[in-house]
Amino acid sequence: MENISGKIKVVAFDADDTLWDCQSQFVKVEEEYARLLSEYASEKEISDSLFSVETANMPLLGYGCKAFMISLVENAIQISHGKVSAATIETIINLGRTLLELSSTPLPEVVEVLSYLKEKGYRLVVFTKGELLDQENKLRRSGLLPFFCHVEIVSDKTPQRVAEMCRDLQISPDELLMVGNSFKSDIIPAIESGAYAAHIPYKVMWAHELTREFAHDRIFSLKHLGELKQFV
User: Fold this and answer.
1) CB atoms within 10 A of CB 132
2) CA angle, 184 as apex, 220 and 172 as ends, to 5°?
3) C-beta neighbour count of 96 within 10 angstroms
């Protein structure tokens, strides 16, 4: 793969499962949720039903912890045929609230790579989707905010939103490198906008983010974040 250091001016990072762990925490909550509702259905039935409810809610609620919490409650009522107790609903809400207080500890190599890129003169930005306040709080708790000159939190990532960000930063798309774990949300929109992209899969992936992956001359497939230094 080519070294693109002479082309790139801005390196944009996804947040959840790129800068810090997130999805594995949702998995833990969902496992406990299934245990709470085990008298009504099997773990798989609860999980499948929850995913259907989340998917149906996305056009109105978008992504993030708060949307997830609403789906947890809605699904509990649905799968129990209205029999779930108020006490269990309260437990589910409190379980979901734990996701709003995650430590957002940076993943291995994140601080090292951000320091390296900043020393090399790149402008660093966060480009992520989710609920505004939740993502802002996670970024603050992570301690990574001083590395970034620009933070953009969007309801969804599209090629148009990538292009708009490039215009705001006064660069052309081919001067942007997008770094993220989701091929669907991070890599494809960047490539379709004309930018470069570095794909770094994470150990856990939300079912909604699964998609067919493909090779492209502007996609760098990396095993870990540290490999990024070979190309920029």
Assistant:
1) 12
2) 60
3) 20
Average pLDDT, the chain: 93
CA pair distance 109, 198, nearest whole angstrom: 15
Residue-level pLDDT at 77: 97
**C-alpha distance from residue 214 to each of 157, 180, 199, 206, 227 (Å):** 19, 15, 11, 19, 20
List Cβ neighbours of 20 (8 Å cut-off, separation of 6 or more): 102, 104, 105, 106, 107, 110, 138, 142
Q: Which two tokens stand for residue 146?
A: 């001083």
**136, exposed or middle or buried, with CB in 10 Å at 0-12, 13-18, 19+?**
middle
CA 76 to chain centre: 25
Tell me the C-alpha distance between 232 and 230, whole Å: 6
What secondary structure letter does DSSP report for 202?
-
What is the separation of C-alpha 208 from the centre of its chain, rounded to a whole number of angstroms? 11
Q: pTM higher than 0.85 for the full model?
A: yes
Per-position DSSP letters for 73-90, written without gaps between them: HHHHHHHTTT---HHHHH
For residue 192, the number of C-alpha atoms closer than 13 Å in the C-beta half-sphere is 14
Angle of the 86-97 helix axis to the 65-79 helix axis, nearest 10: 160
Beta bridge pairs of residue 150: 125
Cβ 86 vs Cβ 153: under 8 Å: no
How many C-beta neighbours within 10 Å does residue 3 have?
A: 10
Give residue-wise pLDDT tens across range 117-134: 999 999 999 999 989 999
Q: Check residue 163 and give its pLDDT.
A: 97
